[in-house]
Structure formats: C-alpha cells, structure tokens
Amino acid sequence: MSDEEHQFESKADAGASKTYPQQAGTIRKNGYIVIKARPCKVVEVSTSKTGKHGHAKCHFVAIDIFTGKKLEDIVPSSHNCDVPHVNRTDYQLIDISEDGFVSLLTENGSTKDDLRLPTDENLLTQIKDGFAEGKDLVVSVMSAMGEEQICALKDIGPK
C-alpha cells in the first residue's frame, strides 16, 4: 500500500438531523414545515383535487417562526416534506448585557450567554422593564434547525 498519511475533515455535525420527512397530506394547521430552508408554523392548508396528471396538491401558507415572514409552498400530497424539530426550553433570566445579549440560567446550573434579546418590540420592552424592576423572569427559547430565539416571557414574581 502507500505510506502516506491521509486526514479527513468532516463537515457534518454528529447530532440528530435538523428535520424529518413527513408526507405532505398529513401536515395540518398549527404543525411545522420547512419552506425555502426556513422553519415555519403552518397557518393554512388547502388540498386540491387530483388533476389530469394524478396528484392531489397541498397548498401551505406558513409563518417563519423566527422572522415572522409569510411563506407559501405547493407540494403533491403524496410527496414528503421536511418538518423541523422544534424545541421550547425555559430558562431563568440572570442578566442583560450592554450589547443586547442575555445571560440565562440552565437547569443544570450553568449559564447560557449566546442569545440576543428578541427583535419583537413588545416582548423586548416587557423583558427590559421586568428586569429593571428586579422581577424574577423566565424566558421561553424556541430552537429549530440550529437557530434559537426568545419567544415568550413569564414573570415568576419579585426576587
């Protein structure tokens, strides 16, 4: 054989897949779907009858769960669509830094410092005002396809 060394660099991550396949005809309103490589929540589904070429088609109207943009897609109902793995996790808010990052307390007692404040103005003011008043705040973080964003806030009382 050869006596030279080979090194391979893997570009793939070892974790679970970011999406899973699901038949288009089984995806319902309030479910999730990937449209244009973005994780979305389905707000409307309509199915057309089988046409001349034999496939019923599903028309999806969905909202991007991170940007709030409306996206649409039409897929034959017998085909598979990508569905994102969407997780919601609650963390206690410890601190808000000057540059807009938040420090969150995880369940195992360590801190998570890689999240920015949300872009939604209403939620942003609720978090800042509640933190300024010294309240104990718990934020819900939604994660899908390698992205994370604060999506909700709970007030668990004063410190």
TrEMBL record:
Organism from which the protein derives: Nicotiana tabacum
Domain Translation initiation factor 5A C-terminal: 85-154
MF-aspect GO terms: ribosome binding; RNA binding; translation elongation factor activity; translation initiation factor activity
Pfam family, one: eIF-5a
Biological function: Translation factor that promotes translation elongation and termination, particularly upon ribosome stalling at specific amino acid sequence contexts. Binds between the exit (E) and peptidyl (P) site of the ribosome and promotes rescue of stalled ribosome: specifically required for efficient translation of polyproline-containing peptides as well as other motifs that stall the ribosome. Acts as ribosome quality control (RQC) cofactor by joining the RQC complex to facilitate peptidyl transfer during CAT tailing step.
Organism superkingdom: Eukaryota
Bias (Basic and acidic residues): 1-12
Protein name (record): Eukaryotic translation initiation factor 5A
TM helices/strands, residue ranges: none
Keywords, alphabetical: Hypusine, Initiation factor, Protein biosynthesis
Chain spans, region Disordered: 1-21
Record bears the keyword Protein biosynthesis: yes
Post-translational modification: eIF-5A seems to be the only eukaryotic protein to have a hypusine residue which is a post-translational modification of a lysine by the addition of a butylamino group.
Family: Belongs to the eIF-5A family.
UniProt KW Acetylation keyword: no
GO biological process: one example: positive regulation of translational termination
Database matches in InterPro entries: IF5A-like (IPR001884), IF5A-like_N (IPR048670), IF5A_C (IPR020189), NA-bd_OB-fold (IPR012340), Rib_uL2_dom2 (IPR014722), Trans_elong_IF5A_hypusine_site (IPR019769), Translation_prot_SH3-like_sf (IPR008991)
